[in-house]
Design a protein that fits this description.
about 160 residues, single chain, mainly alpha, 5 helices, flat
Length: about 160
C-alpha cells in the first residue's frame, strides 16, 4: 500500500516540468518579439537615414539570431511538455517530440543555424580580420562535433 502511494507521488512530479516548459515558451516569445522589432527598426533606420549595407546586414543578422534563439527555447518548451506531461498539443508533425533523441536532434539543428548566423554576421562585419580563419575553423569544428553527436546518438538509439 505504501509503495503504491510513493509511485503515485513520484508519477505526479513529472508535472513540475510545466513551469520550466512555460518559462521557456515565454522567453521564446520575448526573444521573437524583440528580434522582430529589431528587424523593423533596422528597416526604418535604413530607409530614413540611408544606413550602409553592412550596418543593415549586421543589424538584421543580430535580430535573426535572437529569433533563432527564441526558436530553440520554443522547441525546448514544447519538447519538455510533450516528453513529461502530454502529447496532446497541436504542433506540426515535424515538431512532435517522441523521445529525448527527437528533442536533441531538433535542438542541434537550430543551434547549427544560430552558429551559422553568428559566423556570417562576423564575416560581414569585417572587424574580425586575421581572427576570421580561426573563428571559421572553430565554427566548423563545433558543427562537425554536433553532427557526429547526432549521428552517434541516432546510431545508438537505433541499435537498441
Amino acid at each position: 500500500m505504501y509503495a503504491l502511494h510513493v509511485r503515485t507521488v513520484v508519477g505526479w512530479t513529472r508535472f513540475a516540468v510545466i513551469v520550466p516548459a512555460l518559462a521557456a515558451m515565454v522567453g521564446a516569445l520575448l526573444l521573437m518579439a524583440q528580434g522582430s522589432l529589431a528587424i523593423v527598426m533596422v528597416v526604418i533606420e535604413t530607409v530614413s537615414n540611408q544606413s550602409s549595407l553592412e550596418t543593415s546586414v549586421i543589424g538584421i543578422l543580430t535580430a535573426v539570431d535572437a529569433v533563432l534563439l527564441g526558436t530553440v527555447l520554443l522547441v525546448i518548451g514544447y519538447g519538455l511538455y510533450e516528453l513529461f506531461v502530454g502529447t496532446d498539443i497541436n504542433v506540426p508533425p515535424w515538431l512532435k517530440i517522441k523521445d529525448l533523441e527527437d528533442l536533441k536532434s531538433k535542438l542541434v539543428g537550430v543551434v547549427v543555424a544560430i552558429i551559422a548566423v553568428v559566423f556570417v554576421g562576423d564575416l560581414v562585419d569585417g572587424d574580425a580580420g586575421d581572427e576570421l580563419l580561426g573563428f571559421g575553423i572553430g565554427t566548423g569544428a563545433v558543427i562537425a562535433g554536433l553532427a557526429i553527436f547526432v549521428w552517434a546518438s541516432k546510431r545508438a538509439h537505433t541499435s537498441k
